Amino acid sequence: MENNFLSTPLIKIKVDVFYHSCPHNVTSGFYSCDPEEIASKLKGMKAVVIVGKYDEEHIKLYKEAALRAGINPLLVRVVDATWGENSIEENKKILENGWVAELALVEEKGLPVSRRELIKGELKIAKDRIDKPVWISDMCRLYRACTLCQDSCPYNAIKVDKKNGVIIDYNKCVACGLCVASCPMSALQFPSFSQQAIFELSKIKGDKRISCYKDTGNSIKLPCIGMLSAVDLVMLRSSGKVELYCPGCELSKNLDGLKSTVEDLNNAVGGFSLTVPGYNIQPKEVEKNIKIEQFSFLANKAEGRQNIIKNNNLPDISYEVQINEKICTMCESCAKWCPTNALTIEYSNDSEKLLFNPDKCIGCKICINVCPEGDNGCSSGSKAIKVFTAKEVKHEIKTLMKDEIVRCRVCGAIVGSRKSLNLVKKVMKERGLECEDEWLERCPTHRAEYSYKKFFGKEVRFKPRRGPNDLGRV
Question: What is the pTM for the complete model shown?
């Protein structure tokens, strides 16, 4: 079944293919293991797939050659000559969408000194790149309320600052990829493997073996398979079976969430396998194809998730939301911040409702974070709103809260809910301030008019102060 993707257009990077041959790898191509000589052939390239030998010795050689040639090493991918043309095409697709590579943290390092450089007394410094997740601010609209990435990191390497955004401590970060998998907006990505690259790989028909750079076999190599979200897995599965392989390292202890996701997906549609040291999931018989329709922004995994679940009846965790009517003031903050519109406000002439759609909720708990009623922390137990896993999946939209709408006594504009105005009155009285209903139940302009006439007299004409943008207006 053809995948019909619609995404924000990105400039594709030109990718070259360089064939390397040496005594360890007798094929056609450039024959030398001198990094300077290889670098001379790579100069001028932006991104390159090197077809040669995939082992520790040669990967180190190719990286040094790329640095000497002035190429961002995160835009270099190595394919063993025995892996075939399909592997070359997959790695070209990854590099074509490697725009995040330029956002990686730069680290200057000295290159090994050759005999020629030693004689000349030359010392070469190159700009290496650190392949750890980067925060893309333009793709993150939620950092003043969302803490999903921070909560996902077991190493305390991420902090969400409401003023400055997401701050990553690269001294603590181990590149496990859990923050990348957790972000519903794709605002955290690995420089060597963009979110767009994952989606583009999904368009290539055929089964896929996916592993990390430590795997010496033929596979699509990621920094860590822990970076894959449920959306990523289903996208990849839409064009064939998916085999996930972890060769084992200190990061394999972080894959419990991935194991659970793969098990659920395998039970639903089959075609998934996962191998981790001491753990193995065998693929179930493929029962059906994955259907993916167009949606507005493919990198928005929150939207993609809803699209995929809806069209394929996939297993999903359903969430429930409750409102504490004693402390909720219908301030609307939860609905304004909800990234998937699971919470919305519905107005009528004399009332407003807070509605909840469980089919859109992703359990991000941003609504709890932004709720002003309750303690200053993010404890769901003492906030006006509470999110929890539902015992049974429900698909109907329900009303969480309903309140009277108060309109301006002069112009009829909405002033707020009755509960929110009652709170304003209570707070003002606690602070010893006067609060008349005649003043409270007016829009800001007519409140100012009321206060002005009360102070200067009813016969005085009220003229609102004009700002610099009001010059020339009648």
Answer: 0.75
